[in-house]
Amino acid sequence: MGIFNSLAVSASGLTAESLRLDLIANNIANMNTKGRPDDPANPPYRRRIPVFAQILEQVSASGSSLSSVRGTGVRVVQVLEDARPPRLAYEPADPMADALGYVAYPNINIVNEMVNMISAARSYEANVTALNAAKDIALKALEIGRG
């Protein structure tokens, strides 16, 4: 793997984790938004989850007809909405309440979101560290080349 490939792998990880952090922040910001149960015109917010996929590259072994794959990064292939039903709260005085007096809230657990945020932040930091290490290696190689 060349130096530019390692930079590209780290950059793809940074992009993916950045989107993941944005989605988590959006989930937390909308966790108290109201909706009307079973009303398609006023649905509650649904938690959004990124789906990552490895970017693979076909490589062939030199002098051989055998080929293999190697990872060249990660990408977000889609953003899913959580399929779990919303959390219902009995608030009959609320204007968003249905005929039975229930208001629908997103089924978002703040503890899970914070754990996911810490995980995404650590992954982002790891990609920054790998990117900086690759950059330092490239700079040292250039210094050696100068003689």
Oligomer category:
single chain
Approximately how much beta-strand content do the residues carry? 15-25%
Secondary-structure-based class equals alpha+beta
Low-confidence stretches: none
Q: Total strand count, please?
A: 4
Q: Tally the helices.
A: 2
What spatial form do the alpha-carbon principal axes imply?
A: elongated
> How much helix is in the residues?
40-55%
> What is the averaged pLDDT score?
88
Largest sheet: number of strands, sense, barrel closure: 2 strands, antiparallel
Secondary-structure element pattern, one letter each: HEEEEH
Notes on the structure:
This protein is of the alpha+beta class. It has helices at 3-29, 110-146, and strands at residues 48-60, 67-81, 87-90, 102-105. Helix 1 packs antiparallel against helix 2. The longest helix is centred in the C-terminal third of the chain and has 37 residues, at 110-146. The two termini are 25 Å apart.
